[in-house]
Amino acid sequence: MRGVAEVKEPCSLPMLSVDMENKENGSVGVKNSMENGRPPDPADWAVMDVVNYFRTVGFEEQANAFQEQEIDGKSLLLMTRNDVLTGLQLKLGPALKIYEYHVKPLQTKHLKNNSS
């Protein structure tokens, strides 16, 4: 028989003020320069911003590795696939997901936003 799932307290991160009028591309306008308590550009994230990002996207256990290795936003954006797979000493499955679904897209978004 399965145990009862633990109910977690709601996150106490500041809420965003959102303009609910959809833009042409389907996005909504954000009126605050912070996203979930973090600066919008990952290059400006402190170590704890990186740690909290990975905790909020479901990698609570693995987030500690970013803190132990003192990975801030600039370091995160410089990480290679190999850095994530071997340098953080994570299990292979979570490490692959972290790189492919989080680190790589953050790097791509950062480069796209700063290439203009």
UniProtKB/TrEMBL annotation:
GO terms for cellular component: nucleus. InterPro entries: PcG_chromatin_remod_factors, SAM, SAM/pointed_sf. SUPFAM superfamilies: SAM/Pointed domain (SSF47769). It comes from the Eukaryota. Gene3D superfamilies: Transcription Factor, Ets-1. The lineage of its organism: Eukaryota, Metazoa, Chordata, Craniata, Vertebrata. GO terms for biological process: negative regulation of DNA-templated transcription. Residues 45-93 form the SAM domain. This is SAMD13 isoform 1. Pfam families: SAM_1. It comes from Pongo abelii (Sumatran orangutan). GO terms for molecular function: chromatin binding; histone binding.
